[in-house]
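Batch queue: ligand-bound targets. Current item pairs a single chain with flavin-adenine dinucleotide. No template structures supplied; prediction is de novo from sequence plus SMILES. Inputs echoed for audit trail.
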Amino acid sequence: MTAIRIAVIGGGLGGCTLANGLLKHPHIEFDVFEGSSAFKEQGLAVGLATNAQSALKKIGSDVHQSLEAAGGVATASTRIIMELLKPVPKHQLHVDKKLERIEQGAELLTLHFADGSTAQYHAVVGSDGIHSTVRKTVLADHPDAIEPFFTGFWDVRTAVPIEVAKDAKIVDPANPSETGWVGDGGFILHQFINNGELVGCIAAAAADESYDGTQWRNPVTKEKLAKALGDRGEFGESMIKILLDQPEPFAFSQYESAKAPTYSKGPVCLMGDAAHAMTPWQGSGAGTSIEDAMTLEFLLGKVTSPSQIPAAFRAYDEIRRPRTQKVVESSREVGAAFCGKDREMGVDVQKLSAGLQRKWDHIWSLDMDQHLADTSAAFERFKDKA
Ligand SMILES: Cc1cc2nc3c(=O)[nH]c(=O)nc-3n(C[C@H](O)[C@H](O)[C@H](O)COP(=O)(O)OP(=O)(O)OC[C@H]3O[C@@H](n4cnc5c(N)ncnc54)[C@H](O)[C@@H]3O)c2cc1C
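Prediction returned. Tokens below.
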């Protein structure tokens, strides 16, 4: 079988999961190009729900074991990446390789990097995050869909050792449990990371007129946090103190990808945040990236010649785009509800409870076998048409 050369652009969770999965397919020769100086994740931690765990199992048992080795389902993200990359030969992993543009040739794509070097591949997978360069190629005919937009919410995050959280009384020492507090305009959450070694603390709020949503992040003060979160008594005071007790406390603007009309163009496709960056409210950015990686790895395993890649990427687009864009929308809706901004539910506890309790079903309950069967059928259809 002809060797098929694939470039994976971006070494975040999505790109690294795909790299791990592609090791199963000897006919795929791949390289991962990371623009920064190391393979690492932006986020504090990722909680991987049942859908993400099922997708990891489909990719291969080693990956699932990697997750356990990295500390369980809510894990410092960079640790997961290190586990995923362990089996990938070092010569296939390239750092300080920022893609600048893709040039389409008759048979090969030429990648131009910021350091002046070039490389040629049959196909490119853009897992280069919310400010994706690959997206500019895929959506060249849809310029309005290239840039992400501010959703009107911001958040402040940190992580502290469990003992610090207990001393500050934000975690009940007798009965430690992860909790979210819904409020009128603001939301507070804490979650356990690395099997409970750390407590991730997050405060989020709807932006008021003083917040600059054109900036990726803005300085945050005690007064701003207190105003956004309202009176939460001693607990709120402790949480604010913890959130501000970091070298550079910032409020991060929550952005979302514009709704893309396609995730692929010929032999180039998008995955993860490059395709569908979403707000963090349903904790599904990482999980949907892993599902993307599972689907792409499955399809690329079926491709027997470079000429079949556009059909594989069309199948990927047909199956993954509706699924992921629905998650983007529901995540935004959950955020509004958590911050007391849903018009119907407001801060009515019973309405919130009834309205929110089924909101995760469509994310968690994806039948991976059926999803891959649908993907396979779509690939056969597009392959026949080609
Ligand atoms: C602060 C923060 C907190 C988060 N918290 C959570 C959470 O709790 N739960 C959750 O599920 N998700 C969370 N997410 C989202 C989650 O991290 C992502 O949705 C998910 O990991 C998608 O990863 P990705 O690989 O698609 O993109 P990214 O992780 O963004 O990786 C993209 C990679 O591409 C590289 N890159 C960019 N441009 C280029 C280029 N031109 N050339 C080469 N390389 C390039 C970047 O350096 C980066 O390493 C969070 C994100 C952030 C920013």
